[in-house]
Amino acid sequence: MSERTALVVGGTSGIGLAAARMLRQRGATVHIGGRGSERLAAVAGTDPELIGHRLDAGDPAAVRAVVAEIGVVDWLVVTVGGFGGPGPIADLDLAVLREEFDAKFWAQLGTIQSALPHLAPDGSITLLSAITARGAIPGSAGVAAINGAIEALVRPLAVELGPIRVNAVAPGAVDSPWWTGAGMSDEVRRGYFDQVTRALPTRRVATVEDIAEALVLVATNPNLTGTVIEADGGMHLVSL
Q1: Domain 5-175+209-230 - what CATH class?
Q2: Alpha-carbon span 138 to 132, nearest angstrom
Q3: What is the pLDDT of residues 69-87, one digit of tens each?
Q4: Helical ranges in the chain per DSSP H
Q5: Alpha carbon distance 11, 31 (integer Å)
Q6: What is the pairing mode between strands 51-54 and 29-34?
Q7: Helix, strand, or coil (residue 82)
Q8: 3-class SS at 224?
Q9: Where do the DSSP E strands lie in the chain?
Q10: Count of beta carbons in the 10 Å neighbourhood of residue 157
Q11: Which residues pair with 206 in a beta bridge?
């Protein structure tokens, strides 16, 4: 059994919650942070072994307070992000894109900075990007810029912060609650998933558990740092 302590920021639903559950299965003491009290209450009912904290990743003081309460964090996993930003460049709402940078890039970077004094010397930082950072999907320039900025943190921080390890995971299409938050109807989502399934080499859309397994791998493997795992079913290899 592990004696490690993990903090999953964005751990109340979807990929983050799946990762928190897997880290707990490894024997870690797992704390999760999320903004919504209803989601925290729901997780307390379904997963009482996960320790919940109401936390806005965009509020550095709140992050510092939670991490100070925890003490030492061995594995920091940050999966927060927003829902907007895609669309043709000619019609892209730059105000919305700035909000999305706040919700994902600045929130992830700020969480690193706030948690850093309490990270174990042999600990790890794991971020969540997306394959748009590495692809050429029309209508994705805005979100590609956000995810590209996150991935640009990984290699320099891996060197700067070593022996603390820094990695990221870049998923493609994932069957997760994100689509509902983004306002996509079930019908539109199913149509998109059908298109993706036909195009991907794996012929399947990822589950949240698929991506969580990659997050847990890079969070816990002591030989991985400065790495971005493309957990996208081969999306970067094909045109959609």
Answers
A1: alpha beta
A2: 10
A3: 999 999 999 999 987 667 7
A4: 14-25, 37-46, 60-70, 94-100, 107-115, 141-161, 178-181, 186-199, 208-220
A5: 8
A6: parallel
A7: coil
A8: coil
A9: 5-9, 29-34, 51-54, 73-78, 119-128, 165-171, 174-175, 206-207, 227-231
A10: 21
A11: 174
